[in-house]
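Hi U.,

Before I forget, here's the chain from the pilot set. I'm dumping it here mostly so it's searchable later in email.
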Amino acid sequence: MAGSKFRPDRGLTGRMVLTMVLLVLVYAAFVVALVAVGMNVWLVVLLVAGFAVLSYLSSDKIAMFAMGAKEVSPRQAPDLHARIDRLCALADMPKPRVGVADTDVPNAFATGHSRKSAVVCVTTGLVRRLEGDELEAVLAHELSHVAHRDVTVMTVAGFLGIVAGFLTQAGLRFAAFSGMTRSNNNGPAPAAVALLVVLVSAVAWGLSFLLTRALSRYRELSADRAAAYLTGRPSVLGSALTKITGDMARIPTRDLRQVEPFNAFFFAPAFAKGFSLSRLVATHPPVEKRLAQLSEISRHLGRGA
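Structure:
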């Protein structure tokens, strides 16, 4: 948080450090386990290192491409840039790049592995639905993610899930086509090795999933607090949150499913209608909890005034 006037959050900092330490341990155990079940050690190192570098350096480009978002200039989106300029000046922080995704799903997200590569992106559906001060409150929320550096931590944390998911799919396909015949040197059957890789990958993915989800829920509350105190208008952020979550029910299921993988980075989760596992292990705290926190901040600011 150095160099920013966003409200510090030691709880978030502690959780980010703990999450990274635990993920490093999971990464190490993951590599050791893959080598133990028969994968070539250099192949494992190359695979893990390759995904790590790609995920870290290209996270902003991958997210923007997947969302169909494009970076916009001040000439293309003058109002959006003006609001971000004002908030960055208020927060005393460098201005990130600005992007717009052409989708009716009302949302916003921040991504990037560093402040220099950071980008704050809004959807056309969000801009169309919110009043100017509500949009500014959401932008403050997203800028706080950049200032807190939790965007970087979430980017790194999501890397293991990508590797584990890739190995799980590759292992299942290999096992399906190779059969359970034993190798020529009386070693384990290729399909048996593949299934062990699937098991190890699934466990690693599950652990990283739980760790990142726990951090994601807390960081959203932290960003709400930081944005509310920076703007001094928590009720406006609450109004934007209520409007977005209410309008989400009117979005076609197909559109919601397309963007649902980005829930961990969104201002508000985009759940497809009906039962969803994401409702059991949520990326965001309940809306009621977020609104209650904003109401408490309003009372606190009122007493201070």
